[in-house]
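Reopening closed ticket. The problem is back. First fold of the pair:
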Amino acid sequence: MPQIDDDLQGCRVLVTRPLAQADALCEGITQAGGIALHQPALAIEAVHDAASQHRCQSAAEYDWLIFISRNAVEHARPCLPASLPETVKVAAIGQATASVLTGAGIQVDLISKGSGTSESLLTEPELAKVTGQRVLILRGEGGRECLAETLRGRGAQVDYADLYRRVRPVTSPGELSRLLDTGIDILTITSGETLDNLLALAAEEQRDITSLPLVVMSERLLTLARERGFTDTVIIAKETSDSGVVEAIRQWREMVTTE
């Protein structure tokens, strides 16, 4: 992440990404002068499903591969073919997913724009006419159905490769309370599961976090946060990336310092 100004000086940010995926965001916050406090509220486990692994191995038979997240890329890599024919197009939900694909040597043909969601990907013209085409969605277990249902409605044959599951991580008793007691200025949330896990942890420790400002990744998460009782500012990151989250925190900081 490029060096940026220290306009988050002293801002204490709770980062809730999984343990192995928080470094870049924490580094970006630190480079901006902030203080990154990491409390994982999500853990990723591999799913060893024979049918899903076979679909990955047969990826060359599809017209489209759609990677829902960077976790999907990382868990798919061991069973994907060494190379894909030009007839196979690759789509990514969000810039972070696209970056991991590129880093793995996989050419990305389509990236969801705007909010970086399934809904935004579906607005792309390349996926408007998919009648008779075969689509493989590489995702986490129990993901949303919007993408597959819409593509099937457009005449595509859609399969899933469920490659990982999202679970609540094991935490030490009182760990969240200790961080809250040091002072948290703003929370960062990148998925609905993360939000619910953090709220469950807070409830177990008899703490209320719903009055804290919050950065989320989409309108859907904003709506969910409001439904869960968040009453303060909820800001949507304009880009679904670590730098996008940092920029959203900067936007919030500028707003509160000029009030």
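Second fold of the pair, where the issue appears:
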Amino acid sequence: VYVDDGAAANLRNELSKVGLNITPQEFSARKVVTILFGVGLAALCFIFRFYFGIVVALLFTVYALMKQRDALSAKVKKKELAVSQEMPRFVRTLCRMLLSDRDLVRVIGSYRKVAGPELGGELDILLAEMKSGNVQNALAHFENRLGTAEAFRLCAALRDMSMGVDQTASLSYMADDMARQAKENIKREWSLRPGKMRRTYCPAIA
């Protein structure tokens, strides 16, 4: 299945976030199989003149496609929300520990012991890359994997710290700002719940 390079890159990033070890082409192929199955079922109903079955088959196809899309989107948003909620504590802990120890690998490794599962998985990759390669590249990869404004600000400060620039004051302010943003994200998530429920129920009701 052909997938545009830009779309493939975005989809690959989303799949890696939720830990699905499939390619964007394989994920897109599932959509094609679902469509072909629905069209084939509708054609079979047409041959046997079961016209109501055609409607059911088409509704089933639409519902299956929406379910596949929403399942991936929900997993990505769940992980992003969990990471954003933990990020203030992570930054605040780094700020406190960096006052006495400027070794980023040791400090991040200490926090990894108490990190949540979502952020912890990303920290495992970050630590492995920092130990085996360049710290700057490892932080850049960490920033790209998370793909959030909070990660961009954090990695920019940590890159400066790795080069000897004191950014503890910036990290302290960043932690407070991220805590406020995390609360706003939770409120925004709750405000969107009714719309999500309507999109889920409408196909089922039909």
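Update: turned out to be a display glitch only; the data is intact. The two ends are 31 Å apart (CA to CA). DSSP finds eight helices and no strands in the chain. Please close again.
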